[in-house]
User: Fold this.
Amino acid sequence: MKMAVKIKNLVKNYDGVLAVNHLDLNVPEGSIYGFLGPNGAGKTTTLKMIVGMTEPTEGEIEIFGNKLTFGNDSFRDQIGFLPDVPGFYDWMTAKEFLEFSGSLYHLDSETLKNRIKELLDMVGLSKNVKKKIGEFSRGMKQRLGIAQALINNPKIILLDEPVSALDPMGRKEVMDIIGSLAGKVTVFFSSHILADVERVCDRVVIIKDGVALLEDSIEHIREISQSRTIEIEFENIDTSSFASLIENSPWLESIKNGGKRLLIQVNNLDQARLEISELIYKNHIIFKKFTISEATLEDIFIKVVNGDV
Amino acid sequence: MGLDLIELLPLLIPLLVVQLTLQIIALISLWKRETVRFDNKWIWVVIIVLGTLLGSIAYFILGGETHENGSED
Amino acid sequence: MFNISFLKKEIKEYIKTYKLLIILCLFTFFAILSPLTARYMNELISLLAEDVQIIFPEPTFMDAWVQFYKNTTTLCLVVYLIIMTGTVAQEKNKGSIMLVLTKKVSRFNFLFSKFVGGSLLLTVGLVISLLVSGLYTQILFEEVFYDGLLFSILLLWLMGLFYTAFAIFASVIAKTPTTAALLGFAGYAIFNLLNVSSGLQKFNPAGASSLLNAILYNTSTTSANIICLISTIIGTVLTFTLSYIIFKKQEI
Assistant:
């Protein structure tokens, strides 16, 4: 598989604080790649190093096989970038900003004209051509941000938290646009919200404190979660006394006592179900509710970030 | 020798025109904008009207809203 | 290859964000006011303080130029300087710099466009104010030209370019527009303090501001004039180069 971005042993040291700590990363060409991590994990720093705005302390970055050096602009034709808070010139209209963006790449005016029309349609801003960017909503700005990142027809676009500042409607609009890019361009985007990534991404990397914790395809990540949660609500016994009955079982991962409910995380669901049933029968326990829930990616994210995997 | 205002008037008019032009454009810009520093347009009306040329310049340079800074991830 | 698009954006920005308007109004205002105050200074003083019986000599067109240089190198220049100190810092503060520099624009291209854009703004302001002031001086005194006028204008313009480079320097090293403006103003104050010493003055890239009167009254030597001219040019080039070296390595 050809790699759009290859990162080896990347380090960024800010006066002794490692914002990015020996990070390895491979973004396959053509994929929609989610870059997940809580706030402060080093996502923005990593992205800034990839686009050449920040100099790595150590490590290598390759873009389509070409090694990046700080201050070298030759790779810029191939990438598009949307920073976390894109700053536009408020006095321009969306069209003017795209014309300006295109002119920075020396695109000829005919190509640029068609491209702008296409992009404005794609991001749903073609009805707002007269409006100044200063009067745009956050969602509109973010959509314009995606359009400007695509102006040079790049092979990869890097988006930094493209939806985190948006309301649910704006979020959906932007995620739909990102989803529609599948197969046309490699997309590498960061987020601290898993639900966004889950919908559109092929692959995901989860980082925390500048370290990659998990890197895999979405399907694999779903599969690795052998751990399931059993939720039981009791009628005639209090939760803590039941918890003491199972606390030494080998399949038990954790117990959360939710007052009337017991949340039991297990690593072997079949064995656990069998033994819990047995205990219930032997001790004449009456339960109100017994449910089994599969872990969502959210749970995995939280587990990975907390260092439980 | 006293000041002959009638004789001076044609020379003073351009001065007034320049100053008023800037003040009027400043007031129009203030009227149209949604946010302004200090969150109070009347403060700026006073500054533009009483501060004449320099008041208007102060409005154009300082009156723009303070921008939120991009948060680190 | 130098991309002119960013310079075009700079010029449009000066128009759309009223910066050109500010400079034109300010420079024109003082271009009119300077000859007027020179001509009517005595009348004004006698109006304001009727009992003071000081007889000032009849003003000449030279006084108009003294006023013009004084106003241009103080208030006009300070406002221009403050406008220019925002040029990079504002783009950093707003984040627009990130959208520009991640495209195919080199940092040199970016910074040099800023310099050229600012210089154009200043040049337009100076040309207009010189024309207006010259016209008023002609009307009020019926005399405008003196030996060394053209050289003085050149020196004034070059000093403006030096301050442009200096404003960009302040804008590059500062994190916010406010810090940049304060740095710019502090620099202006320091360069003017250096002018107090006449020995240092000719080596001061901003030395022109006090040399202009000396040239007007023909009390300055040709060699001092030339040294000042060269110091201003070297000062401008060095300041811009230093700004670029810092900017090139800067993490944004």
Observations:
- Residues 3 and 53 of chain B are 24 Å apart (CA to CA).
